[in-house]
Design brief:
64 residues; 2 strands; globular; 5 helices
């Protein structure tokens, strides 16, 4: 499973700080996710809600 946060950030031309502001997640956590850390499902939900995308748009997995 891979979190596609980098791709969304690149498409929207937004920074880690902006993602943090939109989602309410600490910038350090956003950075960790971008570097490959596997977030909890509630964190993925918070990312999706803040960025206005579906959870499926954030996750790359052969099982989705």
């Amino acid at each position: 499973m891979k979190i596609l946060l980098d791709e969304i950030m690149e498409q929207r031309n937004i920074s880690e700080r902006q993602v943090s502001d939109l989602t309410g997640l600490p910038r350090s956590l956003v950075h960790e996710i971008r570097r490959g850390s596997r977030p909890r499902i509630d964190t993925v939900e918070q990312l999706a809600k803040g960025l206005g995308v579906r959870i499926g748009d954030l996750i790359e997995s052969e099982y989705l």
